[in-house]
Amino acid sequence: MTLSIKKFLVTGGAGFIGGNFVAKVLSEEIGKVLVLDKLTYAGHRATLRSWEGSPAYRFVQGDIGDRQLVQQLFQEFQPNYIVNFAAESHVDRSIESADDFVETNIVGTYVLVDEALSYWQGLSGDEARSFRFHHISTDEVYGSLGATGYFTEQTPYAPNSPYSASKAASDHLVRAYHRTHQLPATISNCSNNYGSYQFPEKLIPLALLNALEDKPVPVYGDGLNIRDWLYVEDHCEAILQVLAHGQPGETYNVGGRCEMTNLDLLHTLFQCLKDQADLIREHTDYCIDVDYASLINFVPDRPGHDRRYAIDTGKIQRELGWTPRENLRTGLAKTVTWYVTHLDWCREVLKDNYDRRRLGSAKRTVSDP
Ligand code: NAD
Ligand code: DAU
Q: Whole-number mean pLDDT of the chain?
């Protein structure tokens, strides 16, 4: 990808996708990075440890909804790009309580985009022309598909979970700031990411760790829900392409072109674990003679569970020349290798934080607080 050295203000950079994005920008010497992250249960300095001490990298712990802090950081750092990954990202947690989702995803994004507008209005010449505010969104805003068809950039929004509803609201705010105030903003809506540094509450890392530890792997409902799996490094490359060549005001859908039922995904993951038995033996004390498939444990379905997601990637492919490099087998093999060799990271981020229990399993009743 081609971007001259730029300054990236990355919100949510201590999380899964943000952390991978920061690593790409710094390791490929594409630019300088300032991370703004609240360090919620999902954000960890450990994800960014290799960059500490690098002159191209700075970390600030704080909230995207803290207007004064955001304003101060914009003025100090003078970013060319603001990339907003910061969010509450887990559907199951949004079923338990949507408070933080509304606060961060809606109110926080509002504050960030509003301050970005003031900052951009203070720029001039090339700085103003090349400035971009890029907002990371999700395919979940489009709702659920039937057996056929794909989400395109024209698909009407129909979010089904409190999480996706909060992301939809944030997308509308960003879009409105472009239409009303001409803020040079872009949005990308991507499918399910997987890869290194994903917090072990999402299906792939949770199932991977449970399988290694010979524990049940919870499968919601009949396990036939379909997701389109996108390797996180492919996603990060797509974001860089949008920043460099995307048109302000436009939305780009990003998908892995790897549609699969959850059950088929798990069987593919188990095969990758079998293929890497030597690595598991070398790096861990876990038993490798496990019949992983027997660990599958059907549990009650997620309330409001979307049945199928699938992305039409035609626009980003045609207009920006982006296509995913990894298929599910190659991406999962890399992911398994990473987790098996980074179990210390898993222990560190889970400690006193999350015990891998089922979240969001029941509809709330009137007696719930
Ligand atoms: P994540 O949960 O791993 O990381 C989110 C990060 O945001 C954490 O580091 C957290 O500390 C930080 N954060 C939360 N609230 C904040 C606040 N108020 N101020 C500053 N920082 C805050 O999430 P992720 O999976 O990396 O997702 C990143 C973005 O991509 C999110 O906007 C999410 O909606 C979107 N997305 C994720 C996926 C996926 O499969 N993971 C797919 C589509 C879209
Ligand atoms: O599609 C993009 C979205 O993908 C992002 O916007 C979200 O931030 C991200 O979390 C992800 O949402 P999902 O709900 O699809 O991901 P999750 O890993 O939670 O679940 C994937 C599928 O697996 C889904 O059909 C629910 C199911 N599942 C999940 C868990 C955690 C299980 O069957 N068992 C589980 O234990």
A: 97
